[in-house]
Amino acid sequence: MRHIVLLRGINIGPHNRIAMPALRDALGEGGFAGVRTYVQSGNVVLESPKAPATVAEECAGVIAEAFGLDIAVVTRTRDELAAVVRRNPLADVVDEPKRYQVSFLSAEPDARVLAKLTGLVAAEERMEAIGREIYAWHAAGVARSKLWNALAGKGLGITATARNWTTVETLLAMAGEDA
């Protein structure tokens, strides 16, 4: 089964640095097949017959052992990522895919968290929460977005890591290719 493995908070600034070739090697040595990466921000496509939660846990363990880093990991199967792309609830408003973010969550957020996030949506932004994903359109960019700051922070009570729409579509294409 193909899995998309999303690492939270690596290669941003001087901390949590992991070279993608070294990550591919470590995951391959950790028992995963067909390991491929996309850009430097911790996007991995790999194969494993195990459940997504087990893949996330084992990838985090490999990273801890190989690099000495405690990195949060969120996974989706290829079919789950395909469903994320099919849903695309903000397709009618998005005109720049790099300002369209999907936050992948380790679990569904509770109602209080969603209410807080909804209260942070600026006039030029849009947000849709569906299951374990939050789709967010930041028309003016993320630099001054209170919504983005909340989504990128650790105050959600669950692990979250975001990717722009271009990256989401690229990862889905990679997961559909032969390794």
Question: Can you summarize this structure?
Answer:
The chain is an alpha+beta fold. Helices cover 36% and strands 25% of the residues. The chain contains 6 helices and 8 strands.
What does this structure look like?
It is a single chain. The chain has two domains: 2-79, Alpha-Beta Plaits, CATH 3.30.70.1280; 80-176, no CATH class. Helix 3 (78-87) packs across helix 6 (165-176) and helix 4 packs antiparallel against helix 5 (146-152). The protein is of the alpha+beta class and 179 residues long. The model has no long low-confidence stretch (mean pLDDT 94). 36% of the residues lie in helices and 25% in strands.
How do the strands and helices of this protein lay out in sequence?
Elements: E1 2-7, H1 20-29, E2 33-38, E3 43-47, H2 52-67, E4 73-77, H3 78-87, E5 100-105, H4 111-120, E6 125-130, E7 133-138, H5 146-152, E8 160-164, H6 165-176
Antiparallel strand pairs: 1-3, 1-4, 2-3, 5-7, 5-8, 6-7
Helix pairs in contact: 3-6, 4-5
